[in-house]
Amino acid sequence: MLKKLIGSGDYPKLIKKLKSDLKKNKRVFKKPEIKEWCGLRYRNLFINEASLDIEAVEVARSKPIFGKDERPDKQKIADRFLKGEGPDEWKLELPEIEIKELKKTTLVFCPGLLSGLLPVLAFQHTFPIIKEKFGIRIIQSNSHPMRSCEANSVDLLNAIDLGIGLDHNSETISESEAKPPKDMIIMAYSKGMADLMYVLSIRPDLKNRIKCIINWAGAPGGSYLANTLYDTIKDFNFNIKDQFDMLMKIVSPIISLPDQIKRLSEYNVKAAILDLTTEIRGEFLKKNLKKLDLMNIPIFNVTASTTVTEVPYFQIQGVLDLNKYDANNDMQVTQKNSKLSNPMATDLAMLHGHHWDVSYSSFKKMGLSFASNHLDHPFPKTAALTAILKFLTELGLVD
């Protein structure tokens, strides 16, 4: 029935039927035609939202030598910020969805490696807008920036079980103000996805509260760059207090260390990098992926792709190294290692941007350009997250 509706182009009836079927059985996501529709629908919603963003349209505008860029705004957005979509998808006229307040579901965010050490936090300027726009409660896991997935499970479970972490404004939620979330959608970025997978492997009961997972430029399969970095530091004996700054510069040259480093005693650089190696992540998935799939939690993969000319100069070598495996890497992770591939996982989009661009606000606006032209991060993150919430609402996964 669903396949027939997709072919007929009767989109309103298709949307209604899919929502009804999902309510009965979430494993409808295993059907290839449903996966294809979900990707098409999300990209359509993203194009619509981003085409309303004046700054995004301006970034997407080409500058021909003669004349003007006469392309429609939707085409500009699709050409600039998406990769791998079908031809002329921007032309599709699908039903719009209007949502008001989302007060029954909590968005729990799992940040990645180095969270708090980079100039801004992931989605730092997007979450307040989303909160204001939709009223959805947002809890960010106050994950440690540099330790193992197992160790970080404590931070993530504080957010999931107790409501302790950071709010939409990235301000600390005190224990007295904390309120355990009920139904959740979980959005995991970079190493945050590996942290989340570990939590699910030890807490399968969470399947009853997690409506879905958004794997946002995640690293469930690890990174080949982590392999190289771990080989560099594995035999390095260092004093965490005296040589910490030097070690962090090896990890990333733009890390900004505060005068007083919080939770210094908890840093375990080797363990954090080891957990991002493809060998460790591959072993974990081999052991746990089937069990995770049987939890029947819908997982939506959103990956990113960039080129060597679009990244900060100090990331160029990383892109070149990853190009040996996949020319569509995001400067940190290949497409394969950024996705979960199982029946309950669905690919929504390959975004055109690098690993930081799709999640962080501009570093340059913070006065930190690091002599690079590619730290402005123009990808329209608010439009992308708005499209996610509209997409999930349409499927009935968010109330």
- Beta-strand content: 5-15%
Stated plainly, the CATH topology is called Rossmann fold
Taken in chain order, the helices and strands follow as HHHHHEEHEHEHEHHHHEHHEH
CATH superfamily placement:
Alpha/Beta hydrolase fold, catalytic domain
Distance between the termini: 26 Å
What's the number of helices?
15
Please state the CA-atom Rg, rounded to the nearest Å: 21 Å
How many domains, in number, for the residues? 1
The stretches of 5 or more residues where confidence is low (pLDDT under 50) are none
Got a strand count?
7
The biggest beta sheet, please? 7 strands, mixed
Considering the chains and any ligands shown, give keywords for the structure.
399 residues; 7 strands; 39% helix
What can you tell me about this protein's structure?
45% of the residues are buried. This protein has 15 helices and seven strands. The longest helix is centred in the N-terminal third of the chain and has 19 residues, at 32-50. The two termini are 26 Å apart. Helix content is 39%, strand content 11%. It has a seven-stranded mixed beta sheet with strand order 1-7-6-5-4-2-3. It has 399 residues and is an alpha/beta fold. The chain is globular. Helix 1 (2-8) packs antiparallel against helix 2, helix 7 (149-162) crosses helix 8 (191-202) and helix 8 crosses helix 12 (278-293). The protein has helices at residues 2-8, 11-24, 32-50, 54-60, 73-81, 127-134, 149-162, 191-202, 224-233, 244-251, 269-274, 278-293, 316-323, 335-338, 381-395; strands at residues 82-83, 105-110, 137-140, 183-190, 210-218, 299-305, 345-352. The chain has a single domain (105-395), classed as Rossmann fold.
